[in-house]
Amino acid sequence: MRSIWNGAISFGLVSIPIKVVNATESHSISFRQIHTEDGGRIRYRKFCELEDREVSQGEIGKGYEDADGSIVPITDEDLAELPLPTAKTIEIVAFVPGDRIDPLQMDAAYYLAASGAPAAKPYTLLREALKRSNKVAIAKFALRGRERLGMLRVVGDAIAMHGLLWPDEVRAPEGVAPDVGVTVRDKELDLADALMDTLGEVDLDDLHDEYREAVEEVIAAKAAGEAPPSAPEPATGGKVLDLMAALESSVRAAKESRGEEPAEVRRLPERKSARAAPKQAAGKKSTATTKKTAAKKTAASAKKSTSKTAQGTKKAAAKSTAKSTTKSTAKKTTAKTTKKTAARKRSA
User: Fold this and answer.
1) How many C-beta neighbours within 10 Å does residue 95 have?
2) Per 3-state DSSP, what percentage of the chain is helix, strand, and coil (rounded to 5)?
3) Residue among 122, 127, 147 at smallest CA distance from 137
4) Is the predicted pLDDT of residue 189 greater than 50, yes or no?
5) Where is there biased composition of kind Basic and acidic residues (predicted)?
6) 218, 228 in Cβ contact below 8 A?
């Protein structure tokens, strides 16, 4: 790895010659600006305002623009001769617990490599001291034209340095948090904990840049004269209003994605008043149905009784009429017979 800075670590009276190399690398895809009509490259040319001509890179230097607009030239030699002990030295100023460093201050990361055989012993001494103390070293160093703050820690068998922002470069989180009062229930926290337990364990080596891979597929397809792959349809979900339901669904989905059995999550019991209404309505419906059935039975019974009474009345009337008719006929017959007998006697 190519070094970007050469100097020494100042550890009290101990000086450790080191080389600084980048600890990270970018895999992002870069694009060129082109003329859309013919695909020609777009390039920027650098012109001098006073001479109105293009200048080469070797003719370009640094300058500071003053308040009145005048330019003060600054050369690399001027910066190299800065009266700072950190110009070529990473000066350790303190050792503190690692949790004292706010991650918001973390910046670029570098590896510090021992420069030559004489640096091996003091380099190893500093590394082992950091390991045994479980602390990190806070240091000041100058890089790329300005003094910076750094944190030294052990990574494997090497010493790494993280550039740190100065405390006044980190903004306070004012106006970021919700400005309304919100109450979180214990059940919601329990579900959030369950979701964190499910999603919390992951091997960082398994994570990769899917966006970069998708861009590479598009580039490969267009280079081969093929149509680029189409984007999948985004999931159309409605606005989630029930936080509990969203948490429960998230826990189930996370467990299923890991091949685990769906989470058995029980909802909080609802209020009794909320359940009383349906039961009361059901009771009313049942009572109405019972009353209606009883009314039908009573009506049918009354109708049947009325029919029987009417039939009995008709039969009694018919019987009475027949009896009266028989008596009347008998009287007429007796009277007729008496008259005939009397006539016969007079004739004799």
Assistant:
1) 13
2) 45, 20, 35
3) 127
4) yes
5) 253-273
6) yes
Question: What does pTM read for this prediction?
Answer: 0.60
Measured CA to CA in angstroms, residue 24 lies from 19, 34, 148 at distances of 15, 30, 18
Measured between alpha carbons, how far is 286 from 288 in angstroms, rounded to an integer?
Answer: 5
Mean per-residue pLDDT of the chain: 78
In this prediction, residues 56-82 reach a mean pLDDT of 89
150-153 LR contacts (CB < 8 Å, sep 24+): 150/90, 151/101, 151/106, 152/9, 152/90, 152/92, 152/112, 152/126, 153/98
Asked if 146 and 82 touch (Cβ cutoff 8 Å), the reply is no
- What count of other Cβ atoms lies within 10 Å of the Cβ of residue 259? 6
Question: Taking the CA atoms of the chain, what radius of gyration do you get in angstroms?
Answer: 52
Read off the tokens for 129.
Answer: 């001291």
Task: Name the residue with tokens 């080596």.
Answer: 205
Copy the structure tokens of residue 32.
């060129």
Confidence of residue 309 (pLDDT cuts 50, 70, 90): very low
Give yes or no for residue 35 having a pLDDT over 90: yes
- List the domains of the chain with CATH numbers: 3-31+78-169 (2.40.290.10), 183-201+240-268 (no CATH)
Give the phi and the psi of residue 89 in degrees, each rounded to 5.
-135, 135
DSSP summary character for residue 134: T
Both tokens of 67, joined, read: 């308040």
Measured between alpha carbons, how far is 124 from 114 in angstroms, rounded to an integer?
9
CA distance linking residue 159 with residue 112, whole number of Å: 6
- Span of 43-47, 243-247, 270-274 with lowest mean pLDDT: 270-274
Residue for token pair 């509990």:
244
CA nearest to 197, candidates 254, 242, 148: 254
Nearest to 136 by CA among 146, 126, 121: 126
Contacting residues for 23 by C-beta, under 8 A, at least 6 apart: 109, 110, 111, 160
Per-residue pLDDT tens digits for 168-187: 999 999 989 888 888 988 98
